Structure formats: structure tokens, C-alpha cells
């Protein structure tokens, strides 16, 4: 290679061809290695043999998540049954009788009104800007 300090020597076509062939062999080996690694990474059975703890952990997390979802569905259906609703209503009425001031509060404090107004203004402004950007796209 020429680093700019000395004039380049003319190379024979055989030398250039030899260099090209050498580079092709290196590239072929690199591509073969990449292909081998890709096959190895996508082989689930091999990965299970190499990393059994990770697969056991992932399986346990999956089972726990599915169990949690199943339990949530079970509980939501149980809450919809009449006896459960009646019990919750009885408890709510008892609380209302014990502390009627907690059932419904009166006027919200001033700071809460100000925070709501500011939040609404910001939300409306951002929404308008997003709509304008989406509408005026080229």
C-alpha cells in the first residue's frame, strides 16, 4: 500500500489476482463463520442445552405471569357475583353512616383548581401542536 511518501510501484496482474483471491478466501471463511453462528443462535434445542438455567427461569416467569392473569380473571368474576356485591355495598353503607363527611367532599381547594387549569391548558396546547405537525407534513 502507498502511504503517500513514496511513489507506488506498479504491481503485476498476478500479484493483484493473488491478493484478490486471498481476500475472497478470508471473506468466505468469515461468512461461513457468521452463518454457523446464526444457525447456532437460532437453534432452540442447542440453546436449551447450553443455557438450561435461563430457560428454566424464563419458564417460571411465564408460568407465574399466566397464573397471575388467571387469578385476576377468577377474582374479577367472583367480584361480579351477587353475594360479593351485596357485601361490598353493606360495607360502603356502613362507612357512609359512620363518617358522612368522607363520602363526598365539597369544593376542591384553590391549588387543585389552578393545577387542573394549568394541566388542561398544557394538554390542549400540545394537542394542537401535534395536530398541526401531523396535518402540515409534506
Sequence-ordered SSE layout with sheet pairings:
Blueprint: H1 13-42, H2 44-50, H3 52-79, H4 82-98, H5 110-135
Structural commentary:
The chain has a domain at 108-138. Helix content is 78%, strand content 0%. It contains five helices and no strands.
- Which bin fits the share of residues in helices? over 70%
| Element pattern in H and E | HHHHH
Q: Major beta sheet, specifics?
A: none
Mean pLDDT: 89
- Outline, from the CA principal axes? elongated
Cα-based radius of gyration, to the nearest Å: 36 Å
Structural class: mainly alpha
Number of strands: 0
Binned strand content: under 5%
How far is the N terminus from the C terminus? 48 Å
Give the low-confidence spans: none
Output the number of helix runs.
5
Outline of the structure:
This protein has 138 residues and is mainly α. Helix content is 78%, strand content 0%.
